[in-house]
Amino acid sequence: MQDAQHFTVQPCTHQDGDLKVEGCIHVDALSPVDAAERVLKEPLTVCGSPQQLRAKVWRLADDFTPVSVLLYRAQS
């Protein structure tokens, strides 16, 4: 069984063509996608167009280096 990790999720929205990155939300989850889906309550994917960007998810690697992943609205 996989242990939960600590992630920081920054929700992203688009307003009048500009990207707005909102505040940080801390959550324990199994993966970056799981963390962002818990926060945003919608399905997300690691591939997508810039207009579909929904979150930037951060975590610390084993050497305490920050690592981020961009997540996009899943196509339905």
Largest sheet, strands/sense/barrel? 6 strands, antiparallel
**Total tally of structural domains:** 1
How big is the Rg? 12 Å
Termini separation: 30 Å
| Unreliable stretches | none
SSE run: EEEHEEE
Helix content: 10-25%
Structural class: mainly beta
Count of DSSP strands: 6
Q: Kindly state the mean pLDDT as a whole number?
A: 93
Put simply, the count of helices is 1
Secondary-structure map:
Blueprint: E1 5-15, E2 18-21, E3 25-29, H1 32-40, E4 44-45, E5 53-60, E6 66-73
Protein model, in words:
Helices cover 12% and strands 50% of the residues. Strands 1, 2, 3, 4, 5 and 6 form a six-stranded antiparallel beta sheet that branches. The mean pLDDT is 93. The chain has 76 residues and is mostly beta strands. The longest helix is centred in the middle third of the chain and has 9 residues, at 32-40. It has one helix and six strands. It has one domain. A hairpin with a 2-residue loop joins β1 (5-15) and β2.
Features of the shown structure:
76 residues, mainly beta, 6-stranded antiparallel beta sheet, 1 helix, 6 strands
Summarize the structure.
By secondary structure, the protein is mainly β.
